[in-house]
Amino acid sequence: MHAEGGMSVTDLQELIDKRIPDNRTQLETSHANLMDVADYCEDNYLKERYQEKALAESKQYAIQSLASVAYQINKMAA
Q: Partners of 8 in the beta sheet?
């Protein structure tokens, strides 16, 4: 038997019971990690004598973080 949208009831139940909670946990972990990176970048920028260097490093972390989040969301949507 299929629920609306073409999913079987079993698949829908697995989505509700396992996949959504697991994905939420992964996103919460990513959020905590991103907050740590943001704190590091801010602290590093304020302490670094050569702030241009710290800013360049922060930009690289931002690019990597955005790519990571995009990948994670794409993987979850599949």
A: 2
